[in-house]
Amino acid sequence: MIEISLKPGAVKRAIGKLGVFLIGAVVCIFMLFPFYFMITSSFKTSAEYMSPQPTFFPHDFSVFGYKTIFAKIDIFGRFFLNSVYVSVLIPLLQTVVCLPAAYALSRLNFRGKNLIFMLFVVAMMLPGQLTIIQNYRTIVKLKLINNLNSLVIISIFSPSCIFMMRQFFLGLPKELEEAGKIDGCNTFQNFLHIVAPLSVPTIVVNLILCFNGVWGDFFAPMIFLKQQTAMTLPVGLTVIMGALSSQDPTVLMAALTISCIPVMIIFFIFRKKLISGIASTGLKL
Amino acid sequence: MKMKCPKLKKRYDNIGYLFVLPAFALFMIFAAVPACLTFRIAFYEWDFLSPDMTFVGVENFVKLFEDENFRTVIGNTFYFTVVTVLAKVGLGVILANFVASRVRNRVGQFVMESALFMPIVIPMSVVALVFNKMYDYEFGVLNGILRIFGLGPVGWLTDADIALNSVMLVDIFKGVGFFFIIALVAIRNIPRAYYEAAEIDGGTKTRQFFAITLPLIGNTLVFLFVTAFISSFQVFDPIYIMLNGMFGDTKVTISYMMWQQAFFYRDVGYASVIAIVIFVIVLAMTLGQFLLSRVMVKDD
Description:
Number of strands of chain B: 2
Helix content of chain B: over 70%
Number of domains of chain A: 1
Structural class of chain B: mainly alpha
Distance between the termini of chain A: 61 Å
Largest sheet of chain A: none
Oligomer: heterodimer
Number of strands of chain A: 0
CATH superfamily of chain A: MetI-like
Radius of gyration of chain A: 25 Å
Shape of chain B: globular
Distance between the termini of chain B: 51 Å
Shape of chain A: globular
Radius of gyration of chain B: 25 Å
Order of helices and strands of chain A: HHHHHHHHHHHHHHH
Helix content of chain A: over 70%
Largest interface: A-B, 91 and 90 residues
């Protein structure tokens, strides 16, 4: 005979474990349901989508939404490529401009250094609404309305990128550069051959965060890009929303699903890096 | 013999200016000068198109104080901000504590972290559009689920009393992960020894949360509240996408109103005044955080 002896705390602990599991499950379902809804809806027929009884899995599996997207690839593909263009170019240019600035502000000695750094910190606090009016005017003057480069040019300077890179440089041992100096490197060579290679991991984190931010950016693109051919995904999708989804919401769901793919790939590859990047800088995407 | 130490002259690396120059130039052109000019435009009447602006003195500021709509909008904004900030920081910290202290296995931690973190990387426009469809009065899945339980349809975005709350839910959904992650890292950095000591003394988990966790992440909490406030106060995307043009703009927030005055009505001077109000409030919050965290550091 097997005696099942329960220790006094065992039942209580089992209930506790079940409770933890249930709370966790509820939280996860709440957080994941919208994405589940988006993906499953994109594979439904519009009749099923519109039926009064919601279905949680597509009965009549349909790729009509995706077919429609690919039939209108000249519109949707354009949005996608536009988004890729800005989301790749802006992080790269940001690094090229902000990395040397961050290096100088953390390591080099020159008059006015602290003042410049303080100005950059203030720039971090400037709400976009305060600068957008004059920036819009500048973009109009430069004839860059409906041009993706308008977004590029206003986004290259990033005080948060400078701040993050500066934090990293402050933690680098000075001896490395001193050794470089002894071996005959000038400041520029020191930066290019010693410091920049060492900061690659931080640069990568910064590139990912920036890519993600630009991919989802809405306020400035909505103001600068009025022509459909110039729009990025977030703005373009709101256009599709009106034009296509009134007839068939599954098309919109397919478009939304596709537009999540790049950030999802990045999310799963760089999950750890993203978390540590956000946690260490406290910068909001 | 006495060695005389040569007095070191402070060396200046003037090449530093060259390193900073591109960033500084862009800072001037696209941040500093535009911000200052907005303060100037606030005293003018202008529509973006006409070549010259008309000086109107403080008229735009007076208009702000007399604007009924602005009062509604600022009320909406503070309502939106207070509720979403409390929800995002509160839920974020509670869930972080839950994962750190209760979820023991690796898989569970991975799933929870991923589920909460995912909405951060998804663009707000995508989240807002998905919720837009879920909130749909006739075909939305939320009313569909309610129908199963025999509950009447809710006008998530069509009922004036509910609409702003529905948008707030989206903002909380999208934002909570950020606060969760930062709180989680802060809680995991607390030395285990404190909790072990508490366990020996028979302190319950709830007791531990209030007596150990919360006080030790005090500075992080201040930071989280301020970050949450600043971002919620400036919320634009979901308001624009979900409430655009509904309810005669009585349910919008201050950023939307600023955009609307500038780029829809083209009352640029008035829009500048609103932008200044946003700036002043954001600045006050940031300075508040700075002072508060100083006081707290002194206390420690």
